[in-house]
Design a protein that fits this description.
Radius of gyration of chain A: 14 Å
Strand content of chain A: over 45%
Order of helices and strands of chain A: EEEEEEEEEEEE
Largest interface: A-B, 20 and 25 residues
Structural class of chain B: mainly beta
Number of helices of chain A: 0
Number of helices of chain B: 0
Number of strands of chain A: 12
Strand content of chain B: over 45%
Structural class of chain A: mainly beta
Helix content of chain A: under 10%
Order of helices and strands of chain B: EEEEEEEEEE
Oligomer: heterodimer
Chain lengths: ~120, ~110
């Protein structure tokens, strides 16, 4: 079974600064997808960024980028120019490329606080 | 609809009572998922519906939990004889086949 670990329960960043959230995972599969989701107080999970394991190039979405290290099974999220609206819970998630469906395995989350 | 809709937003019940949680997915989405989020934890997969196929119930924690999806659209998650450990946020998500997941805002269930 796959597991996802987020070792930072809480992180804090100054507005306009850069912060990196860590995620490691364990799998025996070679083909899979990795995700970062944001969960604001509204509880609705919002997809931030997605990475396909077969792609060596790190995914980027505006101020959000990842550092995907397949051999190390590491998938960190970098948020540049942090904004007050970035404050939320962030979850790393894994999905196998085998079979149908979007069953995700989630990490325990990191609470990000942004200081003005 | 414009997004995934869940009701009620909050539910308080007494231990031993049955509860029903409703999910209305995005129109046209073939797949529907239920996840549970216990306090301070990540999401735990419960059940998955895809079209007319038999649901994947591998994540249901006990036989007190069941779900159905009527007409390939609305889904109801039923918890019988609720226990205090069932207290959590229950999130529903839908997608077209295996494409991007869209989540609802969840139902906060509190079992007293």
């Amino acid at each position: 079974a796959q597991t996802v670990t987020q070792s930072q329960p809480e992180m804090s960043v100054q507005e306009a600064e850069t912060v990196t959230l860590s995620c490691t995972y364990d799998t025996s599969e070679s083909d899979y997808y990795l995700f970062w989701y944001k969960q604001p107080p509204s509880r609705q999970m919002i997809l931030v960024i997605r990475q396909e394991a077969y792609k060596q190039q790190n995914a980027t979405e505006n101020r959000f980028s990842v550092n995907f290290q397949k051999a190390a099974k590491s998938f960190s999220l970098k948020i540049s120019d942090s904004q007050l609206g970035d404050a939320a819970m962030y979850f790393c998630a894994y999905r196998s490329a085998r079979g149908a469906g979007n069953m995700l395995t989630f990490g325990g989350g990191t609470r990000l606080m942004v200081k003005p | 609809g414009a997004g995934v809709s869940q009701s009620p937003s909050n539910k308080v019940t007494e231990k031993g009572k049955d509860v029903e949680l409703r999910c209305d997915p995005i129109s046209g989405h073939t797949a529907l998922y239920w996840y549970r989020q216990s306090l301070g934890q990540g999401l735990e997969f419960l059940i998955y519906f895809q079209g007319n196929s038999a649901p994947d119930k591998s994540g249901l924690p006990s036989d007190r939990f069941s779900a159905e999806r009527t007409g390939g659209s609305v889904s109801t998650l039923t918890i019988q004889r609720t226990q205090q450990e069932d207290s959590a946020v229950y999130l529903c998500a839908s997608s077209f086949l295996s494409e991007k997941l869209f989540f609802g805002s969840g139902t906060q269930l509190s079992v007293l």
